[in-house]
Amino acid sequence: MSSLSLENVGKKFGSTPALAGVRLEVEPSVTGLLGPNGAGKTTLLRMAATVLAPDSGRIRILGRDPAHPHERVEIRRRLGYVPQEPGFYRNFTAFDFVDYVAVLKDIAERRRRHDEVRKVLDYVGLRDHAHQRIKALSGGMRQRLALAQALLGDPELLILDEATAGLDPEQRLRFREMISVLPQRPTVLISTHQTDDVSALCQRVVVLIAGTIRFDGTPAELAATASDRVWVDADRDERAAVSWRTSAGQFRHIGERPADAQSVTPTVDDAYLLLSGADISARSS
Amino acid sequence: MTTHLPAATIEKYAADALPYADASSVEAHVLACPACRRLVAGQVDQARLRAIWGELTDRVDEDRVRVPERWLRRLGTPAPVAKILVCTPSLRGSWLLGVVITLALAVLASRTTGGGDLPFLAVAPVLPVVGIAVSFGRAMDAAWEVGEATVTGGFPLLLIRAGAVLAACVSVTAVAAVVLPADGRGALAWLLPSLLLVVVTLVISTTRAAMPYVAATISAIWLCVVAIAAASPRTDALFGSGAQAITAALTLAAAGVLLSRRHAIESGTLR
User: Fold this and answer.
1) Residue B188 domain-assigned?
2) pLDDT tens, B4-44?
3) Where is the ABC transporter domain positioned along the sequence (chain A) (predicted)?
4) Which CATH superfamily is domain A4-217 in?
């Protein structure tokens, strides 16, 4: 059974379409949602988190229909969500904030709730900072705090919107480690701009551009879409859709490879740039 | 030479069978003696140890409950509800102070301008509307979206917060009403209009309108209506018994609409 199923889902904000005819089945795994700003990633994740209703189409989350109030409550019991901007009560301590979310998650019995709060703070490495005010925590600690609240109650579906944004490389590695070894192995749906997060963490990647799904497969399959379309040269080639000078001093080009150029092994980054670059070209023409 | 604990003493300590004074001696000794500490640790029942440790850490965390939350609990508020209420933006000290100052000015105007209790009746119903508008929604609640995806998010959270804001405003306003001019109607006449404005604000907010804007519009309309009534010879048209009966009926009808549309709130309609 899919953890999340979207059938022809559409959403508009005013006259601007955010999602158009999206079909997606998310199985238990770590799935990365990749796309430029304004692609509809956050809209899709907010729907998956039952915070936003679609204008058209059907959504099923953990086998239930979020449009029905009772089923929505059941979904929320089994859901963990880190929004793009989690927002904290800055004068609260880390413990207090997670305890508040635990109350909202209906973990009413105090002793059990506090045990649960300690458990998630321990997991994200914030136990020693539990009684520190949130305003005194670093950005990385706050991201971990956001993850801690989402892990309350051992969710079956974990939705993380740009959860690695603003983290330094070491914090991102720690974050990947935390997500990849979650004890209950929930279905994880994570949106990101970071293609290396996708390569390192996700069994599956979905590329969303301008509200439609442009790719759905494994990171290796995504990289393979750029086969034969990446080449390296000493000089910049104007025929490339995207090109940049690498640390080795050569230009890496992505696009329709000229016959005389030698292709190199593409990465997820190349394939993503090719997909999003093609979209930019199509829109500008 | 270091004297270690006899094996029998360790066994009794681990079984919780030592008198209090002897158990305290054992505890003082193991603090300084790693060898005996290891022996005691090996014999203590792990489940019991976990239970004691859990209770200890729980007490430590409990002591750090914030002061307003502790007061609410002492007043009989269930602990989870107290926790939710201290996170309500419009129940913070600055908001309540604002309510008190606004009401004080309204009472002062009622006593000094010769307009009777009209200034008070104009202002008092609006305060809960504004309070509820700033207690819920993305613009006012930093952790709104996190809360929205939880079991209590949406309508239940709105009801808890709206109830608390109403209770706080009604308490403060009731105290203020005591010092109104003796011939006034203000002591209770503001209550039903206030309820109506609150419920209508919530109903309109179940569409795509943002609650703070709805609250501001409704409040402005109310103030205009009172101003028009004040200019007319029959001010009772708004606060007399007939008007109150109509207000009560409208409030009930609006509450029915709100109940039927509560799922719109749970689907994240409110901003």
Assistant:
1) yes
2) 999 999 999 988 888 999 999 999 999 999 999 999 888 88
3) 4-235
4) P-loop containing nucleotide triphosphate hydrolases (3.40.50.300)
pLDDT mean across residues, chain B: 81
State pLDDT tens for residues A255-271: 888 777 788 889 998 89
> In this structure, are B255 and B212 located in the same domain?
yes
> Hey, are the CB atoms on A67 and B66 less than 8 Å from each other?
no
Domain co-membership, B167 together with B249 = yes
Closest A-chain CA to B87: A89
A238 vs A84: which has the higher pLDDT: A84
First to last CA, chain A: 42
Structural contact between residues A17 and A68, judged by C-beta atoms closer than 8 angstroms:
no
Contact A86 B145 (CB under 8 A): yes
User: B266, A72: Cβ pair inside 8 Å?
Assistant: yes
CB contact under 8 A, B66 and A101: no
Clarify whether residues B140 and B20 are in a common domain: no
Token digits for A18? 């955010």
**Total count of domains within chain B:** 2
Using CB atoms, pick whichever of B87, B145, B267 lies closest to residue A83.
B145
Task: Find, in chain B, the residue whose alpha carbon is nearest to that of A111.
Answer: B58
Contacts of B61 in chain A (CB under 8 A): 95, 99, 114, 117-118, 130-131
ipTM: 0.84
Q: Which residues in chain B are closer than 8 Å to A93, comparing Cβ atoms?
A: 64
B93 shares a domain with B47: no
Task: Say yes or no: B46 and B169 in one domain.
Answer: no
Where are the domains positioned within chain A? 4-217, 222-284
Eight-class DSSP state of A134: G
Residue A97 parent element (H or E)? helix A94-104
Cα separation, A251 vs B74, in Å, equals 70
Who's near A76: CB < 8 A, 6+ residues apart? A50, A105, B149, B150, B151, B153
Q: How confident is the model at residue A285 (pLDDT cuts 50, 70, 90)?
A: very low
Contacts of residue B267 in chain A, CB cutoff 8 Å?
Answer: 50, 52-53, 66-67
- Chain A residues with CB under 8 Å of B80 CB are 103, 108
Quote the domain boundaries for residue B57.
7-64
Contact indicator for A77, A112 with CB cutoff of 8 Å? no
Cβ–Cβ contact A103 with B under 8 A: yes
Q: What pLDDT shows up at residue B123?
A: 86
In a domain, B109, yes or no: yes
Residue B64 tokens, joined: 């750090």
The answer to whether residue A134 neighbours chain B at the CB level (below 8 Å) is no
How far is C-alpha A143 from the geometric centre of its chain's CA atoms? 14
| Residue A216 binned pLDDT confidence (cut-offs 50, 70, 90) | very high
